[in-house]
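Lab notebook, design round three. We kept the backbone fixed and only want residue identities now. Task for the bench partner: fill in a sequence for the structure below.
Input structure tokens:
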């Protein structure tokens, strides 16, 4: 499994309510994406940075999301260039299902 962190430094800070409204407007875009287990939207406490934490089945499936079109969407929505950082996630603890997941 792969965890991807995306971050966008905003031109001006936003409030939690503004972030929630924006996030809810884009959330449907991430439903049923092949290989995406979970996406968590994040907002820094100072409101200057937003992004997402994604858990993917594979890096190839993650990379299929972060295309030039996705980057253009982010620039249009947030007015800034996104960054994407990948991490291997060999073990995931899921306290909802009470499972420990591995990538094997």
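Proposed sequence:
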């Amino acid at each position: 499994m792969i965890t991807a962190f995306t971050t966008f430094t905003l031109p001006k800070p936003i409030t939690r309510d503004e972030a929630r409204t924006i996030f809810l407007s884009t959330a449907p875009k991430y439903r049923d994406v092949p290989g995406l287990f979970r996406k968590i939207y994040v907002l820094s406490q100072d409101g200057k940075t937003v992004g997402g934490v994604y858990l993917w089945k594979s890096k190839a499936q993650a990379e299929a999301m972060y295309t030039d079109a996705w980057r253009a969407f982010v620039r249009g929505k947030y007015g800034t260039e996104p960054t994407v950082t990948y991490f291997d996630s060999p073990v995931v603890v899921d306290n909802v299902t009470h499972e420990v997941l591995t990538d094997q």
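Keep this in mind before ordering anything: The domain at 2-102 is CATH 3.30.70.100 (Alpha-Beta Plaits).
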